[in-house]
Amino acid sequence: MIKRLVEKVQTLFTRRRRTHKPRQVPVADHGIARDRVPRSALRVCETLQKAGHHAFVVGGAVRDLLINVTPKDFDVATDATPEQIKPHFRRAIIIGRRFRLVHVMFGAETIEVSTYRAGASGEQAVDAHGRMLADNVFGNQAEDAARRDFTINALYYDPTTETVIDYHDGVKDIKRRRLRMIGDPEARYREDPVRMLRAVRIAAKLGFEIDEATRAPIARLAELLGNVPPARVFDEMLKLLTSGHSVACILRLRAEGLHHGLLPLLDVILEQPEGERFVMLALSRTDERVRAGKHIAVGFLFACLLWHEVLKRWNELQAAGSHRIPALDTAIDEVLERQTEKLAIQRRFVADMRDIWMMQPRFERRSGRAPYALLSHLRLRAGYDFLALRGAAEEAPAELVSWWHDFMHADENARAALLAGAPAPRQGEGTKRRRRRRPKPAGAPTATAGDAPAS
Ligand code: ATP
Ligand code: MG
Questions:
Q1: How far apart are the CA of 181 and the centre of ligand 1, in A?
Q2: How do residues 188-226 score in pLDDT, each as one tens digit?
Q3: Where exactly are the structural domains of the chain?
Q4: How much is the pLDDT for 262?
Q5: In terms of Cα–Cα distance, which of 147, 199, 148, 155 is closest to 178?
Q6: 308-421 belongs to which homologous superfamily?
């Protein structure tokens, strides 16, 4: 009975969302300069419009243009079907099985063109928690706007008339710097729990407030994320970590109660007290790189996130009597086995992670041929960057980091001189086999790569 009443109210609500008239915002009010839209996106819109279709730049790109952020990518929404879109372009492919889209390519650029979609109507398949399993029905523009997540993501920009079409007061929300869900927030989170992560990521990226009604249900519904396929959560977490605002995102996720036990990756980040400093430093460096337009190696990022787990296990195995290098090897195996499935880390990143970690004790061997052998390692640069990060977090001696910097950039003679002047390895370092340690006097420094960080 109650369920039926709720359904009825939701249906009425959805209908109302779909029928109200959009605002037409002229350029004088929105201020988007047409020349900020790349030629490729303009071409797609003009071509489809000439063929008699609707075609608008849509989603994150319009939002970003309105607040003077450079959009990451440009998407186009149209009333044309994929079969109608494709023949208009020389290089275009139809992708996706469940909901088909067209990728139109211009050189290295790809414009994603999607047909208006109807979204949830109450007739779509949902799981036991209300999660939408399919949203693959074509619709009109009003329906397409209503199925989008936030008001600021449901704006349509027509580059020909330079008008922004706004169904849900998105332009006003942008001016108020508010992230507001379209429709009933709880129902929309139930349809797709990933929207909780999107809310946090987009608000952190833009520095917007999350509207109270949109924010309130998050902590309560957080556990619904457990029903989302791990690969999808991984993709969303990767977007978050490489957004250029990962530190802000992580802090917000914690504030919204969106971490404990739900997002294994965040548990890794936030629940290792000794590692927090290292991980936060790694994330802020990643943010700097993203903002400077530099490439982010996913393997490197995950090597940072899981390093302290490896370190902890490595120490345990050594304390139990294993030799240093085999102990590291085993620690890596165990951590990878436990985490790759849980975090849905793709296999291709795992080789990078292992190499970066295994290289760390090798940096300590500064005699004989060993340093020369390391110079020809394919992933030396990543391994060294990792060592430098450990140095910055005061987990590796600064002297070792600068020695390697010099050694990597030196000529033959200078290398020989560096080797001659390198400090002798401490016991347990720089040798394949760990010699039996004499007990240290109480309070003696113990900072080796295998020890807990000096913090
Ligand atoms: P970014 O700047 O990170 O690309 P974005 O908002 O453009 O942010 P995309 O993943 O590129 O994010 O999605 C494009 C658009 O598709 C969004 O702006 C939104 O309108 C819609 N969208 C994406 N994911 C969802 C979702 N889970 N539920 C509803 N609408 C969504
Ligand atoms: Mg986008």
A1: 12
A2: 999 999 999 999 999 999 999 999 999 999 999 988 988
A3: 18-176, 308-421
A4: 64
A5: 199
A6: cca-adding enzyme, domain 2 (1.10.3090.10)
Determine the topology of domain 18-176 in CATH: Beta Polymerase; domain 2 (3.30.460)
Q: What is the mean pLDDT of residues 96-117?
A: 92
Model pLDDT, residue 19: 55
Q: Which residue's C-alpha comes closest to atom 16 of ligand 1?
A: 59
- The three-state secondary structure class of 192 is coil
Q: Cα–Cα distances in Å, from 145 out to 79, 80, 455? A: 13, 16, 51
Classify burial at 158, counting beta carbons within 10 Å of its beta carbon; exposed 0-12, middle 13-18, buried 19 or more. Answer: middle
SS (H, E, C) 77-127: EECCCHHHHHHHCCCEEEECCCCCEEEEEECCEEEEEEECECCCCCCCCEC
Q: For residue 134, name the pLDDT band (cuts at 50, 70, 90).
A: low
The mean pLDDT of the chain is 86
Mean pLDDT across 83-110? 93
The preferred substitution site among 167, 191, 198, 205 for testing ligand 1, maximizing ligand atoms within 8 Å of CB, is: 198
3 state DSSP class of 25: strand
